[in-house]
Amino acid sequence: MTRVLVVDDEPQIVRALEINLKARKYEVDSAFDGSSALRTATDRHPDVVVLDLGLPDMDGVDVIKGLRGWTRVPILVLSARHSSDEKVQALDAGADDYVTKPFGMDELLARLRAAVRRAEPTGGEEEGALVDTSDFTVDMAAKKVHRDGRDVRLTPTEWHLLEVLVHNTGRLVSQKQLLQEVWGPSYGTETNYLRVYMAQLRRKLESDPSHPRHFITEPGMGYRFEP
After folding, report:
1. What pTM did the predictor assign?
2. Which of 13, 43, 59, 79 has the highest CB neighbour count under 10 A?
3. pLDDT (0 to 100) of residue 199
4. How far apart are CA 126 and CA 122, in angstroms?
């Protein structure tokens, strides 16, 4: 069974999530503050975390950073904070998705299922953990990129974008999917974000950024990674 850690200081939200998740055969642990969340995650090893940012003892972003110090468990932020800056901060810290309050239970559960699916190992995960191209190597397990014998420094957002494309090697990933997976579910039309970050990835990883071989643009549709 999939184990979910729900972290929120509003008892009614925790109770609603517990009822809905248990009805769908999830195992559920709950925490009402950040320090309890970190302890519970260490003890119980959840498969996914649903995390509020406005906690009484620490900011939820610090909880994300604490978790990311030792685990890649999917983190689904559930927060009343609506500003783009706050969403980007949470995603850059290592969150996988972002749902704003008030929320629809069906949407939240769908996003939770998607986060769990993305984290599930595939049959060839070990073989696919190292992706070689003619210009660089992506070590998915270590979350590192090597080029010309050196590590390439990527920002968390650049890495997240690269990760989504590599996981979909050879397949077109739509602009909307990239925006929502990397920046959050409220994004879908900010294609200028993609242009800026794709240009940065090409500049860091392509031998000829003006004529990319690996990060291919499909005009008006999305992007494709070709090793």
Report:
1. 0.58
2. 79
3. 93
4. 9
CB atoms within 10 A of CB 167: 16
Q: Which of 172, 151, 52, 72 is nearest to 115 (CA)?
A: 72
Identity (one letter) of the amino acid at 199?
Answer: A
Tell me how far apart the alpha carbons of residues 221 and 21 are, in angstroms, rounded to a whole number.
Answer: 35
Closest CA relative to residue 197, chosen from 225, 157, 166:
157
- Per residue in 36-67, pLDDT (tens digit) is 999 999 999 999 999 999 999 999 999 998 99
The structure tokens listed for 9 are: 């200081």
The string of DSSP codes covering 34-69 is HHHHHHHHHHH--SEEEE-SB-SSSBHHHHHHHHHT
Domains along the sequence of the chain with CATH: 3-119 (3.40.50.2300), 125-225 (1.10.10.10)
Taking a C-beta distance cutoff of 8 angstroms, is the pair 179, 193 a contact? yes
